[in-house]
């Protein structure tokens, strides 16, 4: 939801600046991912929306469920989110943080869709080719989409490379109609 992204942006930027200043981007990335997963559970959603829980209780519960691996700054971040009633936007905060981190590190995300499961060597080959093409580090997420029939479809930002059988069939159908 666009409204959640708007609410999450200042918190993601603050977390990014704090993590960058402490040279702790990977630790914050991992912590925010864990916190987002905790906040997305049905039980935690019920606790977040429960008006009977005081902010201190909710923060303590949340930090307790998230685990002992949270640094003091990350625990304080959770308390700020609780105080401002923003725990529900933690998934968006984590996603925006990852985008800021990737931009800072020169990494672009590629969504690779394949008709069949790809082995590690095939993924590594695709990533290497993409890194040459785009002159940057690529972080690939692979999903299986049987509707492609064969081949792959790669999306990086707003650019799409469609090397799937379904895409080629659609292009042939368009060419035959014209």
Can you give a write-up of this model?
The chain has 178 residues and is α+β, with helices and mostly antiparallel strands. It is elongated, with a radius of gyration of 20 Å. It contains eight helices and four strands, in the order ααααααβαβββα. The chain starts with a helix and ends with a helix. Helix 1 runs antiparallel to helix 2 (25-40) and helix 2 packs antiparallel against helix 6. Helix 7 links the parallel strand 1 and strand 2 (137-144). It has helices spanning 2-21, 25-40, 42-49, 55-66, 72-83, 90-105, 120-134, 165-177; strands spanning 107-114, 137-144, 151-156, 159-164. Helix content is 63%, strand content 16%. It has a four-stranded mixed beta sheet with strand order 2-1-3-4.
User: Can you write the helix and strand succession as a string?
Assistant: HHHHHHEHEEEH
Separate helix tally: 8
Structural class: alpha+beta
N/C terminus separation: 39 Å
Question: What low-confidence regions span 5 or more consecutive residues with pLDDT below 50?
Answer: none
> What is the average of the pLDDT values?
92
Tell me the Rg in angstroms.
Answer: 20 Å
Number of strands: 4
Task: Give the helix level as a range of percent.
Answer: 55-70%
Largest sheet at a glance? 4 strands, mixed
Sum up the overall morphology in one term: elongated
Relative strand content: 15-25%
Q: Largest sheet, order of strands side by side?
A: 2-1-3-4
């Amino acid at each position: 939801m666009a409204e959640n992204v708007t609410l999450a942006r200042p918190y993601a930027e603050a977390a990014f600046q704090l993590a960058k200043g402490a040279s702790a981007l990977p630790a914050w990335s991992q912590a925010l991912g864990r916190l987002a997963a905790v906040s997305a559970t049905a039980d935690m959603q019920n606790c977040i929306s429960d008006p009977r829980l005081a902010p201190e209780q909710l923060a303590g519960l949340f930090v307790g469920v998230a685990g002992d691996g949270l640094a003091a700054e990350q625990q304080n971040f959770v308390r700020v989110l609780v105080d401002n009633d923003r725990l529900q936007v933690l998934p968006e905060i984590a996603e925006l943080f990852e985008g800021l981190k990737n931009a800072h590190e020169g990494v672009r995300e590629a969504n690779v869709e394949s008709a069949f499961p790809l082995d590690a060597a095939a993924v590594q080959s695709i990533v290497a080719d993409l890194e040459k093409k785009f002159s940057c580090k690529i972080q690939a997420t692979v999903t299986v989409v049987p509707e492609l029939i064969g081949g792959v479809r790669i999306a990086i930002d707003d650019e799409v490379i469609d090397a799937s059988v379904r895409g080629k069939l659609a292009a042939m159908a368009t060419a035959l109609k014209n």
